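Following up on my earlier thread - several people asked me to post the actual chain instead of describing it. Fair enough. Here it is, all 446 residues.
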Amino acid sequence: MSERLTTDPLPLLRDLIRIDTTNPPGNERACVEYLTARLAPREDLAVTVLGRVPDRPNLVVRFPGRGLAPPLLLHGHSDVVPVTGQQWQHPPFAAELIDGEVWGRGAVDMKGGLAMMLTALTRLHESGQRPAGDVVLAVVADEEHGSINGARWLTAEHPELFTGIRYGIGEEGGAGLDLAGLRIHPVVVAEKRACWFRATVRGPGGHASRLSPPGAPVGRLGTLLTRLTGTRLPRHLGPAAERMLTELADALPPPLATAVRTLRDDPADAPAGGLPQAAALQLDSVLRNTVNPTVIRAGDKINVVPAEASVELDGRILPGEHTREEFEAEIRSLIGSDVEMQLLVEGLAVRQHRIAEPMFGGFYEQIADLTRKADPGAVPLPMMTPAATDAGFFAQLGIRCYGWLPMKLPAGAEHRTLLHTADERMPVEALEFGTSLLTELLRDYR
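Reply from S.P.:
Thanks for posting it. Predicted structure:
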């Protein structure tokens, strides 16, 4: 591993990938210790390491600026999702460099983003420059499993670390789109929040050599899964989704532009038509709450009909005034009232502009302008992502957060779709593109 931070993001990204921070269990301490050691020679930095539990620390570093702008937050998570059951072409924690791409878990989500952020700050320092204002870098734990040990805890217990910060930059949550060969640079202005449940059904069990009794839980669970899979919950068009669809339609040629406007305006709420399936599903998802069955549990012995069966549900609630109770009512309208629903995780119901009312204006326009100048043939698009990131926790502190980790990728490239899947990787060219734009933003932001 490299001994110090350099002005090249590539060795840093490779080192970070090689530190296995799979969550669960997380073990982000090794990553924090690695970064802390490489920041230690900088005497001008205020470095804070703290955590809810010893093996899940968070790193907060304040880089001094020129005092020309308010403090700026850069936030990213050090944990990654598991690779269990995935078939990788190359080892997921080896960080191999193949055909101009770095392969490995976390290359995009989001150790690549951390490498961009840290290298941008290093470049300013090495060139004798400082950012426009103080920059607070928060490297947090546990984003991939509810943020209980990360941003959720950090912002609740140590909000003083973020005093005075007006704007924040974080991950984009995989908010990519592939349409008409158009290269789109997402700028996430709103996101859903997670609301995860465990749904459990109970009933008569017995010996599996006999016919199952009426009302056996496995059969009831099968009915529940059928009702939930692929179901479109009621439509709710909010301001973030409306602007996203409007600007997207303006950038597309017909008939795709017509299809997007129809999706935006259709009072009948017909399924999206005239769009590629992947794009149609993503755009439809920003118009409604969603729920997907993911983890199924029933018996653990082949000759016993289980008396209990359950499924974990990944629910996502739209930004704005939508409540968990309203969301659960939408789900129960499909599965009935006799299913036990246990809340597992609920994201914060932030009612500030970052989540409810997207904030445009000077800082957003600066991000968009930087992107246009660096890549004139592409479109910066204000996006609402169906996913949830740590931005909601920082928004609770009054910080206007944006998801922006620019990568110059060929139109139709699959890299943003590889988050949480096999063969995640980051092109070196995209890594350098993002580092350069972040460097420019940090130097001149207002």
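The chain has twelve helices and 17 strands. That should answer part of your original question.
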